[in-house]
């Protein structure tokens, strides 16, 4: 008889626990495949549409000014070019309302790559094309007249689709041609404007190398560049970080599932020990019997992988249909074989790690044990090497799949530490049960003693229940604290408006308007410029091989100001602030974290390019900035007199008294100062809150999978011990035990296990959330205690119900049937 026929015949006798293995592996692989497929789907979509997202192969950008003659000649020598001028403005539709818009001045060549789909004709002169969603919100139609800056324009088209440089729009886009932009008079010295030159390169050209050479050639000018591969940098970072978080949750679910796989493999091995002994008696070799068991296990594993991978492959098209319109590009529907392969390999490795030891133990059964009537696990040889190798390989695959391997390694280490803590708690529960098993009445004694019975799964179940529940509490408490920070702290401390591009000569008129429209409002006004750091300690930024982590001030242009007094939200950590009447060489105060990342010292120099002119200043102080003040916080602040001659505008914040009509204020500001852009803080907070809620919901769904896995492991472990439970229950019924008493013993066992696991999980999860809020986010730990406490209570109830349902067949077994079965 062949090994295949042996396996087929053996499976006819029942799965013997492999059903639980199939369920655990299916759910774990489905979760892992879904996360990996989503990340791969976004990467694939960005890669396939990189040129269209950017609108070219290379984008060279500079703040506040156009390219000079030499620079423009160098740009045109690279290939076809389109010049895009980006700024923000207030679209004034009269009685229909006003809105902040992202204004793009585009030439005839736009776009060199990508899509520009308009409902109407391309704007010319005193015409604009507006975003269709903005048009719907303000009830605008093609042909309507609106104001932008100091000009009046006709809407010639609605924007249906366009290349956006690979990122999210800060505000609804509006297209205008160069003549119309000039008529608006929004581009003036000191206004916040970005000039972008998007270029199509020759097929053999390397965009990264071309951009690097250009910025090095004009290293003092403050140029920045983006290649098609980095077109969706913001989107990619968001996807990567979200994917890493979801990946860690999926790996947690896989780890919990491995406990269920181990339980299922143990149950399967227990049912096959007698078969192994019988086959050995009739001449079966260890190799042949091992192959038989491997085939049986392999069939179930393949079935689980097929279903799990199929479910995971559905994630990209489902997510794309739900939130695809909110992203710069919809996820590629797939299937993504690379992601599915990683999920399958990880699932197989985890299965080997969890199931190897029980199956090897079954193969160690000696034929003589059958004659003695005992087929317990044989002594065998050490069986830790293969599981250890498989587990290490699974971790290696998980690290490979993560975009941030250092973070993934720390998180996996944290999960192992958490598993060890809950494992120790499980042993403590066993020891406690051993000490207390003679306390109380018969029902209580039997229930407590069951926690330390031979073959119990107390430790395994404590880890399974505690791990998923602690993660859920960690995410829930942290998310609620962040939402509380948004809903209460920001509402109390943040201004109502940020206003930018206020003409410096209009400060007095602006203050008078605020006093008239918003009496009692708090107003702050500071000078505002843009510039790019071009050199640090004499070394050109363009020549740096790698920008250090945390040195974000070197990436692109930055907001700058010059002040005589230290902002209230700042604290000097090193050096000294200059005097109010300082009149000397340019000094600079910078963010302390950025200074640490760049290894700066007091007295070092930094060069900043402003309108193409380099300004070198000596560093006088480092500042710790409280970014939660939600006021003006600049990483770079110059001393008074350093930039007095530079063209600059003013930036203002307005904090209105409660109940004030802010709509009227916005309308009057736009009418009086058409060049001003009014950013309503409440709108930004609302968008951020919506993103946070979506992310929180996604993570909670993933963690719900982990908790469901824990409950399945619990129920599966009960099923795996059903024969032993049925035997114990039959014996108790033979000596007069009543069904309600027997149910009571099971209830005591499951209640103690679930309650103590939930209590430990609550402590671990809430402690981790507090540490995360206090030391990472630096916000107050303020969860909603009613909902937080309901989570472990619900988990306890769910675990008890699941365990009782799994144990019910044993409770319902009749003594006569059980005795005949023996």
Quick overview of this protein structure:
The chain is of the alpha+beta class.
Number of domains: 4
* Class of secondary structure makeup: alpha+beta
Shape: elongated
Helix content: 40-55%
Name the strands of the widest sheet in spatial order: 2-3-8-5-7-6
Report the sheet with the most strands, covering strand number, pairing sense and barrel closure.
6 strands, mixed, barrel
Beta-strand percentage range: 15-25%
What gyration radius follows from the Cα positions, in whole Å? 34 Å
DSSP summary: helix tally: 24
Mean pLDDT over all positions: 80
| Unreliable residue runs | 377-381
- Termini Cα gap: 30 Å
Give the beta-strand count: 21
How would you describe the overall organization of this protein?
It is found in: Cell membrane. This is Putative ABC transport system permease protein. Keywords: Cell membrane, Membrane, Transmembrane, Transmembrane helix. It is a multi-pass membrane protein. InterPro entries: ABC3_permease_C, MacB_PCD, Membrane_comp_ABC_pdt. The chain is α+β, with helices and mostly antiparallel strands. The protein folds into 4 domains: 209 residues, no CATH class; 175 residues, no CATH class; 195 residues, no CATH class; 134 residues, no CATH class. It has 24 helices and 21 strands. A 6-stranded mixed beta barrel has the order 2-3-8-5-7-6. A 6-stranded mixed beta barrel has the order 12-14-19-16-18-17. A hairpin with a 2-residue loop joins strand 17 and strand 18. Helix 2 crosses helix 9, helix 2 packs antiparallel against helix 20 and helix 13 packs across helix 14. The protein is elongated and about 100 Å long. About 1% of the residues have low confidence.
């Amino acid at each position: 008889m062949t090994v295949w026929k042996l396996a087929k015949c053996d499976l006819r006798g029942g799965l013997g626990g492999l059903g639980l293995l199939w369920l655990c592996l299916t759910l774990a692989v489905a979760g892992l495949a879904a996360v990996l497929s989503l990340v791969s789907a976004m990467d694939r979509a960005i890669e396939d549409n990189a040129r269209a997202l950017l609108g070219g192969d290379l984008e060279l950008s500079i703040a506040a000014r156009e390219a000079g003659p030499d620079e423009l000649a160098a740009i045109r020598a690279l290939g076809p070019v389109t010049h895009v001028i980006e700024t923000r403005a207030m679209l004034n539709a009269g009685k229909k309302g006003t809105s902040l818009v992202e204004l793009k001045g585009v030439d005839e060549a736009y776009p060199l790559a990508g899509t520009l789909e308009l409902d109407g004709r391309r704007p010319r002169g005193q015409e604009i094309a507006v975003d269709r969603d903005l048009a719907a919100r303000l009830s605008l139609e093609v042909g309507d007249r609106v104001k932008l800056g100091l000009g009046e324009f006709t809407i010639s088209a609605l924007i249906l689709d366009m290349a956006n440089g690979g990122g999210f729009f800060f505000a609804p886009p509006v297209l205008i041609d160069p003549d119309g932009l000039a008529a608006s008079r929004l581009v003036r010295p000191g206004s916040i404007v970005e000039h972008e030159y998007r270029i199509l390169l020759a097929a053999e050209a390397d965009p990264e190398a071309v951009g690097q050479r250009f910025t090095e050639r004009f290293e003092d000018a403050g140029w920045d560049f983006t290649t098609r591969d980095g077109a969706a940098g913001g989107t990619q970072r968001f996807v990567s970080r979200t994917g890493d978080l979801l990946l860690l949750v999926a790996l947690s679910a896989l780890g919990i599932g491995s406990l269920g796989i181990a339980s299922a493999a143990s149950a399967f091995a227990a049912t096959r020990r007698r078969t192994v002994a019988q086959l050995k008696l009739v001449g079966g070799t260890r190799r042949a019997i091992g192959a038989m068991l491997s085939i049986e296990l392999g069939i179930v594993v393949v079935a689980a992988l097929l279903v799990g991978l199929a479910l995971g492959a559905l994630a990209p098209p489902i997510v794309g249909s739900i939130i695809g319109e909110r992203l710069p590009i919809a996820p590629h529907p797939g299937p993504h074989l690379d992601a599915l392969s990683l999920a399958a390999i990880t699932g197989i490795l985890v299965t080997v790690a969890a199931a190897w030891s029980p199956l090897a133990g079954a193969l160690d059964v000696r034929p003589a044990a059958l004659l003695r009537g005992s087929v317990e696990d044989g002594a065998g040889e050490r069986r830790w090497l293969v599981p250890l190798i498989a587990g290490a390989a699974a971790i290696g695959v998980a690290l490979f799949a993560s975009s941030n391997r250092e973070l993934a390694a720390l998180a996996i280490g944290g999960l192992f530490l958490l598993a060890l803590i809950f494992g120790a708690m499980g042993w403590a529960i066993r020891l406690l049960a051993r000490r207390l098993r003679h306390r109380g009445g018969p029902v209580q004694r039997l229930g407590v003693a069951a926690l330390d019975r031979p073959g119990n799964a107390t430790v395994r179940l404590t880890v399974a229940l505690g791990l998923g529940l602690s993660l859920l509490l960690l995410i829930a408490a942290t998310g609620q604290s962040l939402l509380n920070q948004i809903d209460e702290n920001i509402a109390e401390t943040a201004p109502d408006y940020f206003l930018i591009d206020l003409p410096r000569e209009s400060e007095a008129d602006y203050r008078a308007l605020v006093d008239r429209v918003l009496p009692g409002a708090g107003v702050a006004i500071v000078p505002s410029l843009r510039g790019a750091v071009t050199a640090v300690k004499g070394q050109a930024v363009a020549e740096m091989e790698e920008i250090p982590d945390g040195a974000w001030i070197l990436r692109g242009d930055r907001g700058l100001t010059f002040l005589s007094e230290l902002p209230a939200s700042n604290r000097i950590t090193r050096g000294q602030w200059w005097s109010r009447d300082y009149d000397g060489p340019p000094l600079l105060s910078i963010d302390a974290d950025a200074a640490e990342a760049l290894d700066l010292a007091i007295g070092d120099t930094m060069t900043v390019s402003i309108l193409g002119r380099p300004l070198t200043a000596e560093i006088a102080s480092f500042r710790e900035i409280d970014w939660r003040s939600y006021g003006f916080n600049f990483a770079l602040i110059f001393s008074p007199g350093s930039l007095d001659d530079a063209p600059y505008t003013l930036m203002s914040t307005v904090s209105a008294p409660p109940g004030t009509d802010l709509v009227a204020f916005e309308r009057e500001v736009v009418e009086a100062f058409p060049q001003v852009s009014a950013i309503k803080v409440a709108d930004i907070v609302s968008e951020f809150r919506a993103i946070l809620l979506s992310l929180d919901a996604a993570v909670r769904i993933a963690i719900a999978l982990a908790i469901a896995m824990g409950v399945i492991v619990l129920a599966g472990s009960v099923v795996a011990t059903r024969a032993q439970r049925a035997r114990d229950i039959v014996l108790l019924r033979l000596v007069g035990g009543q069904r309600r008493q027997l149910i009571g013993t099971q209830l005591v066992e499951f209640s103690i296990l679930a309650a103590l696991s939930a209590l430990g999980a609550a402590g671990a999860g809430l402690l981790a959330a507090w540490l995360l809020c206090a030391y990472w986010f630096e916000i107050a730990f303020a969860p909603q205690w009613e909902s937080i406490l309901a989570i472990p209570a619900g988990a306890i109830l769910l675990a008890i119900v699941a365990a009782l349902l799994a144990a019910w067949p044993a409770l319902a077994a009749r003594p006569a049937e059980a005795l005949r079965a023996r």
